[in-house]
TrEMBL record:
GO terms for molecular function: 8-oxo-dGDP phosphatase activity. Keywords: Signal. Residues 1-16 form the signal peptide. Residues 133-286 form the Nudix hydrolase domain. PANTHER family: THIAMIN PYROPHOSPHOKINASE, THIAMIN PYROPHOSPHOKINASE 1. This is EOG090X06MA. The gene is EOG090X06MA.
Length: 328
């Protein structure tokens, strides 16, 4: 197998290579893009309480400058939430007001997928939240997004080792109709990682409690990609769940079209097609590596592949607060 070449080909259609000093532009993996959506040379670091939490594209900066009581730009070009906004509640309320106006103006395509579900913005995952914003808007500010994904697998007597995949409902605001891992969901306000995993497993796949007792944490993967909606520094918390061969998942929240049990031998072909959800490919690759299906014998560049699945997003952001962006 030449898995790394396949991954590079896949990533090159989704990840833009840049050479400026902003942290998100260091997540290029050395690839040339098939296309790009914005000029990151004109991006600006986004700070809250003096710490960088994101990156704003030029078009978002322009819109934000209409609200000088919410955002301010310093002499180096960094964008900060106004220091008069002292509390989590104040910052959350003011940014929600701005986002609501942008949504009414139809200013950014991502806000068409307004969720009435919020993500929290932090300097680091273990740090106290500084504010919250609707999850559809997180990519406008390039803030780190967190999610949970469950690899549901079974040792089938005829098919051998197989993974359950879901096809997302056509009504989903993101990735409609795309193939996905068995269970996946964003980490919203008020829910821990494990709470989210258990909640999504019940809602998306109707997995009973006695089977969820076998749920096993398997670390995380992290990656960056860019789309017409914005910038996505993503971390996915990964779980493995071995299921009996006679178990069939059933959706209960209307967000899944069908489930399909796919032998591992066919999974690789599936995940590199345009029909597979971008953010789930790294999680599935991680599973195949951890379970030995991709190894140093069949993938000589295994160390490079592993590195691509664990981009140090938190380190890169923490190093950038004192850096000045390149001028447009």
């Amino acid at each position: 197998m030449i898995i790394l070449q396949m991954l590079i080909s896949w990533l090159s259609t989704r990840i833009a290579k840049r050479d400026c000093k902003l942290p998100c532009t260091q997540l290029s993996f050395g690839l040339q893009p098939a296309r790009t959506f914005c000029d990151l040379q004109r991006c600006r670091p986004f700070l809250v309480c003096g710490k960088q939490v994101g990156v704003m594209q030029a078009k978002v900066v322009e819109a934000a400058c209409r609200y000088p009581d919410v955002f301010q730009m310093d002499s180096s070009g960094m964008i900060s939430m106004h220091p008069s906004l002292k509390t989590y509640e104040e910052r959350s309320a003011r940014i929600n007001h701005v986002l609501t106006q942008w949504r009414e103006e139809r200013l950014f395509v991502t806000l068409k997928g307004w969720r009435n579900e919020c993500y929290e913005v932090r300097t680091g995952f273990a740090d106290p939240p500084l504010l919250k914003m609707d999850r559809s808007a997180a990519c406008l500010f390039g803030v780190r997004q967190y999610g949970v994904e469950i690899n549901g697998y079974t040792r089938h007597p005829q098919l051998g080792m197989s993974l359950w995949l879901q096809r997302r409902a056509l009504t989903k605001p993101t990735w409609p109709g795309k193939w996905d891992n068995m269970v996946a969901g964003g980490l919203s306000v008020g829910h821990s990682v494990l709470d989210t995993a258990l909640k999504e497993a019940e809602e998306e796949a109707s997995i009973p409690a006695h089977l969820l007792a076998n749920l096993r944490s398997a670390g995380s993967v992290s990656f960056y990609f860019e789309s017409e909606r914005g910038l996505f520094p993503n971390t996915e918390f990964v779980y493995d769940l071995e299921l009996p061969a006679d178990f069939v998942p059933h959706n209960s929240d209307g967000e899944v079209d069908i489930f399909e049990l796919v032998p591992v031998s066919q999974v690789m072909e599936r995940i590199f097609t345009p029909e597979y959800k971008t953010t789930s490919c790294p999680t599935t690759l991680d599973f195949l590596i951890r379970h030995g299906f991709i190894n140093s014998d069949n993938e000589p560049r295994l160390p490079e592949l592993v590195e691509l699945l664990h981009i140090p997003l938190h380190y890169l952001y923490s190093q950038s607060s004192s850096q000045s962006p390149i001028s447009p």
